Fold these 3 entries.
Entry 1:
Amino acid sequence: MMEFTAEMIAGFLGGDVVGDKNAAVHTVSSIEAGKAGSLTYLTNPKYEPWLYTTQASIVLVDRSFEPSQPVAATLVKVDNAAACVVKLLEMYNAAKPRRKGISPRASISEKATVGEECYVGDFAVIEEGARIGKGCQIYPQVYVGAGVTVGEGTTLYPGVKIYEGCSVGADCILHAGAVIGADGFGFMPNAEGGFDKIPQLGNVIIEDHVEIGANTCIDRAKTDSTIIRRGVKLDNLIQIGHNVEIGENTVSSAQTGIAGTSKVGHNCFLAGQVGIADHVTIGNRVKVGSKSGIDKNVPDGEIRLGYPALPGMQYHRSSAVFKNLPELARRVNELEKQLNELQK
C-alpha cells in the first residue's frame, strides 16, 4: 500500500506544512472518522470542532485558516482545500493497482477481439463480433453481447450487461448491474384486450467519458439509437427509455426516469427522482429540481420545480401560497359567515 508524507502532498498541491513534514498517510477519511495514517480535510466551517479531536495524521485546510485551539494533526495549507481534495482523491485512485490478465474461466468467442492490456474477470462472457479496446477492465460476470464495441480504457464493473449491437465509448465507467440495450417498453393494445409487443430493433450508443451508476437501465431504440452523449454522468437506479437522447455533460441524480423519445440538452442538471414524460424536449443548461415532473418542453437555460413542474420563481410563489392555504381557508370561512350575517 502506497504511503504519502505531508511534504510530498504539499509539494504536489503547492501547499505549506504546519507540523511534522514526515507525517505519513495511506488512506483518506472524513474528518470525524479520521484515524492514524489517514488524510482528511476541512472544507466546511461547521466541521471545525472535529479538527481538534480527529485522530487523522494530516488535515488539508485553506491557506487562510487559523485554528482556535491546538491541533495534534499535521496541517497542509493550500489555496483551495475543496479543489485540492479532488486532486488528492484522483492521485490515490491512480495509485491503486489495475487488474491484469484474462481469467481462464471467462468465456470469450473466437470471433471476438480483445485489445492489449485488458483485464477480463471470472465468468465474464464476450460474444462473437464484440470488440474490446485496449486497456479495458471487465470485471467478473459481465456480459458483452454480439457485435458490441467497447472503447479503450473503459471499465465494466461486475454484472454489467450490454446487449447485442450496442456501443460504449472510451474511458467510460459502468457500475455494477447496469443494463445497456434491453428492449424499450413498447406494446400495442390488441383486439383481445391484451398487448402485442413492438419489436425494438435499434441500439444504444454511449459516447466517451460517460459514467453510469449501479443498476441504471438504458433501453435500446425501437429504430435508430438511444444516445448518451460525451461526458454524461448518470447516478444509480436511473431509467432511460427507448430513443431518448441526452446531451453532452448533462448530469442526473438517482431515480430519474426519462420516457421514450424525449431529448435532454447539454449541460443540464436533473436532481433526484425527476420524471420526464415521452416526446418532451428539454433545452440546454436546464436545471430541474428533485421530484419534479416534466410533461412540456422546456426552453434553454430555465429552471423547473415541482409537479407539474413550474418555472422557478412561479413555483416559489405558489409554494408560499400553498403552505398558507389552511389559514386562508379559515379566514374565508369567517368572512363568509360575516357576509351571511350582514345579508340577514
Note: The chain has a mean pLDDT of 94.
Entry 2:
Amino acid sequence: MIVPDFWAEARLQQPLGKRQATVRRWGWSDTSEADAQAMADARAAQAMADLQAGHTVARRERKQAYNGAQGLPIREEVLARHGSTVITRNAYGAHCLNTPDVVFADVDFATQAPARLTWLLFALLALAVVVTTRAYVGGWVWPMAVVLGGLVSAPAAQALYRLWMGYQGGHEALARKKLKAFVAEHPDWNLRLYRTPAGLRLLVTHTVAEPADGLVQAFFAQVQADPMYVRMCNNQHCFRARVSGKPWRMGIDSPMRPRPGVWPVRAEAMPQRTAWTQAYDRKAQAYAACRWLGDVGSGTVHPEVQPVVALHDELSQALQPNMPLA
C-alpha cells in the first residue's frame, strides 16, 4: 500500500515521425513535491522512449480515485497517519481508513432480485404464453410472449426474492449464517461485526494478512463481500473502511468542489474545497459510519490489530448506539 503526500505531473512533447507526440505522467513522494516532480519527469521520459520505440503507450494517466487506480498509488488527500494506517479523504469528501494488513470486508445487502431469477421467470412465462396461445394467435405468439414475459417477470422475481429473504430471516440473518459457517471451518478466526447503512462491515481481529492471501480471498467469497471492494483491495494492496458519513446521507446536497474531487487539487481551487470540507467535517460529527454489533469467533485480537480497531471505532463512532448511520 502506497498513499503519497505529494503529487506532481510531467508533460513531455517530442517528434514522433512527422508529428509531435505528447505524454503525461504522474509522480509521487512522501518527502517533497520536488521528489514527486522528479519521478514524474523520469516516468514521462520512459513513456516517451517506449512510444518512440514503437510500443503501445497510454498518452496520459487520468485522475482516478481509489476505485480505478490500478497500477498507481491511492490518489487521495492524506488527513493523518497512524503508523502504517493512513486516513484519507475520498473523492466525495468522506474520511477513509486504509491499512495494508488489517482485514476489513464490506457486505452490501442486495435490494433487487438476482438477474438470473428474473431471466428464468421471463423464459418460463414466455414459454407458457407460447404453449397456451399458439393455437389462437399464430404468428403473434412470440411478440406477445416477449411483451408479457417482460412485463411480469421483474415484479414476480422481486416478490419471490422478498419471500425468500423473509424465510431466511432477512439479509442480516442470512449474512450471519454464512459468516458463522466460515468461522466453524476456521475456529481460530475472530471478527467484529458492524452495521452500515447498506449492510455489514466485518473486521478480522485474530491475525494480520494481505489481500492476495488465499484464505482472505476465500473469506471474501464466503461472506459475499462487495465485488468492487474486493477489486479495490487487490488493486491497491490494502484494506479500507469509510469512517465518516456519506454527504448525501447527512443532507448535504452539493458535491465537494471542484469536481471531480480526486487529489491533487489546483492551488486556486483549494479555498473552495476547504470551505466545503470544513462544513462537511462539522456535520459529520453528528453521524456514525457504522455501529458495532458484537464479535463472532475465537475472541482473539492480534496485538497489531488492536490499535487499528481502536482507531476505527473512534473515527467511525461505531460505539455510539444512538447516533444515526450515514
Note: Helices lie at 33-52, 115-137, 141-168, 171-185, 214-223, 227-236, 270-284, 306-316.
Entry 3:
Amino acid sequence: MFKQSFKYYKSKNPPPNLDNVLDLNKSNDLTEFQIKKVSIKCEERKKMFGFKHPKTWEVYEIVDTPGSLLFIRNPFTSIGQRYWTVKCLQDYSKKPNKTNIDAFNLVPENKEWWEMCQNNNNVLLMNKLRWVTLGYHHNWDTKVYSEEDKGKFPKDLSDMTLYVASILGYTNFSPEAAIVNYYHMDSTLSGHTDHSEKDLEAPLFSFSFGQTAIFLLGGNTKDDKPTPIFIRSGDMVVMSKESRLAYHGVPKILQIDSRYWDPIDENDLCYIGKDYREVVNICKDDALWKPFGDYLTYSRININVRQVLSRGQKRLNSEDAEDVT
C-alpha cells in the first residue's frame, strides 16, 4: 500500500486528488482522522528568539500511528523562519560539514557554495545541493555512525532543539546529529524508517521551511496504508519510539501562494541575543534577504535533529551508558 500511495501522490499526469490529505489547518480533518490535541505546560516558559510564545502553540498527536508522533503547527515567527533559512543555505553548507556535492569537487577549497551560487547566478549549482550533515555525520551506505566521522554540532541549532524538547517534555534529549535536506519542486524522499540511532526512545525533531510537502506516514510494513499529511513552512514533526520505525516519505512538493516568512514580526526582534544578530541583520534587510526568499519560492528545506549516544554514554562503542532499567 505504501508504494502505491507514493506513486499516486508523486504523479504529475494526472495530478493526484488532494482531498484526502490530512490538513491540520482545517478543524474538520481533526475529527475525520485519529488526531487529538495535546496540552503542554508552558505557563512559566519564556519566549525564545524566533518562536511565538509556547502558550499559542498548537500540538497534535496522530493517535493511530505506532509509538508517538507529534505535529506542531508553525510555532515560528516570520523572522525565525528567515533565520533558519539563512543558516541552512549560507552557513550549514560550509565545510567542514559534509554535503552530497563534496564528491564532485564543484566547490573549490577556498570558496563557499552559497557565495558561488550568488556571485555567478549559478542556478544549476544551487539545485545540486540536496543534503548536509552536521555533528555525527550520517553514513548513507552503512547507516552507522562513527566517532571518527563527526564535526561540531551548531550551538544555535542545539539551543533551539533543546528549547522545543523541554516544552514537549523530552528533558533528557541531546542534539548530536542533523541532516538538512534541500528539496526542489521535482524532489521526492522515498519511503524509509529512521533506525540508525539505537535509542528509539530519544525523539527525532523535524523542522520544515519553504514550500509545502505531502508527507506519507505509514506503519511497520509497506503493506500498511499510509496517511498523507500536508507539512507547511514552519511546521514541526516529532517522532519517537515505534513511530521512528514506521515507513514515511515525501512523494511531492507543492508550490503555495502563502509566504509564511513574510512580513517580519517586529516584536520578535526584542528577543535577539548576541549569537543571532549577524544573521538577523540579513533577515531584516530586504536586499540581503531577497536571494534567500527567492530560494524558498521554489524549494523546501527540512532539518531533522537526532540523538546518537545512549543516555549516559560519552562516546560511541563505549560501555559507560548508565543503567536506566
Note: The first strand starts at residue 35 and ends at 38.
